[in-house]
Q: What sequence folds into this?
């Protein structure tokens, strides 16, 4: 049996059980330097960790084992604090109200494995750090104010700094990327905008590399395919996105229920929709400063029940999937990854500029992967 297959057989519950046993021995000197029961540092607690443990079997007494075990069980050094656990399960995917576009139907049952998802949309600061890192390594170039994959000419644009788009909140000057201020406000914690699907995917691969994880995307292939068997950062599938956005609520219009207001999300409110019950209309009054984009810092609104911020509104989010208007009629029911080819990539979640209609959890939208807009960003996922 292969190592990966063995890991899957043990599953999350078994790994935690092993973690308890390993933690009982973390107090002795030989193992004290290890940050968790993951003694090999591969983000799994498995037989390889037991081999390490056996080689350093403790011979001393321990103090406060229960307290230590409780501490280590709530800490996973391989999962950053900005990621939240999404439990596996089954849900009904699609528009339960039959009020959206035809490609939001038919409603169909989907079963997903567990995964981790970014609590926040990737911020200007996070993307700026990425740009400076890959620029120093020669992985990107700036042509006519646009960031491209190095050596690709203009085939793979990543993003627009402010020199090519005034709505971008990242500036580029003298070989350095930095976050701008807008109307006197630091935009570091606002979501990155003016980023293409390619730019989002490139960030995923870079972050995987930074954290010693596997890179999921093959950027040497013209279609930049994702290897879902690799343990690294990637964009969510459409199914993962909708499942996470629903937060365990079945058949509801939004992540929290069936109505929406400015107390819950950053979007354009209008009386045209009965489910838009906001007492304030138009752009969100807190973030409408007269200078696009009217994004809000991550964490400005309450999370859904899975701990996700801004899963409705603020910015549309890139998904991994190619778009197809007929996909729901033929979609696999277990861990679907979308069509194998297409022209457009999927966008989800609505944004600060669109109406409440676009913020519905079932809403499907798309754009060419090279397009950059001031209302489009992304968040990342990590397979469990």
A:
């Amino acid at each position: 049996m292969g190592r990966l297959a063995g890991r899957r057989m043990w599953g999350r519950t078994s790994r935690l059980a092993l973690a308890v046993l390993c933690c009982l021995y973390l107090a002795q000197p030989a193992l004290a330097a290890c940050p968790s029961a993951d003694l090999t540092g591969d983000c799994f607690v498995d037989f390889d960790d037991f081999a390490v443990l056996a080689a350093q079997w403790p011979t001393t007494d321990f103090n406060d084992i229960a307290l230590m075990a409780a501490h280590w069980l709530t800490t996973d050094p391989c999962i950053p604090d900005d990621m939240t656990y999404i439990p596996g399960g089954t849900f009904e995917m699609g528009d339960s109200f039959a009020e959206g576009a035809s490609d939001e139907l038919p409603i169909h049952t989907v079963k997903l494995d567990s995964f981790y998802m970014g609590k926040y949309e990737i911020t200007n600061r996070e993307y700026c750090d990425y740009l400076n890192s890959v620029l120093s390594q020669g992985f990107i170039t700036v042509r006519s104010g646009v960031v491209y994959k190095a050596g690709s000419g203009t085939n793979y644009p990543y993003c627009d700094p402010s020199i090519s788009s005034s709505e971008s909140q990242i500036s580029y000057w003298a070989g350095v990327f930095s976050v701008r201020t807008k109307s006197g406000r630091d935009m570091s914690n606002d979501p990155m905008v003016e980023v293409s699907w390619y730019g989002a995917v490139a960030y995923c691969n870079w972050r995987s590399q930074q954290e010693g994880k596997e890179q999921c995307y093959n950027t040497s292939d013209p279609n930049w395919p994702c290897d879902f068997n690799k343990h690294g950062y990637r964009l969510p599938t459409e199914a993962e996105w909708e499942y996470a956005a629903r937060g365990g609520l079945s058949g509801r219009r939004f992540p929290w229920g069936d109505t929406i207001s400015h107390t819950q999300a950053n979007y354009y409110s209008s009386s045209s929709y009965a489910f838009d019950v906001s007492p304030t209309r138009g752009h969100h009054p807190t973030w409408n400063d007269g200078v696009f984009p009217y994004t809000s810092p991550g964490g400005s609104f309450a999370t859904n029940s899975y701990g996700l911020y801004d899963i409705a509104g603020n910015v549309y989010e890139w998904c991994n999937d190619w778009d197809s208007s007929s996909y729901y009629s033929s979609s696999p029911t277990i861990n679907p990854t979308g069509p194998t080819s297409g022209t457009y990539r999927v966008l989800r979640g609505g944004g600060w500029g669109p109406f409440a209609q676009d913020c519905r959890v079932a809403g499907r939208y798309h754009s060419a992967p090279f397009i950059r807009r001031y209302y489009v960003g992304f968040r990342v996922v990590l397979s469990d």
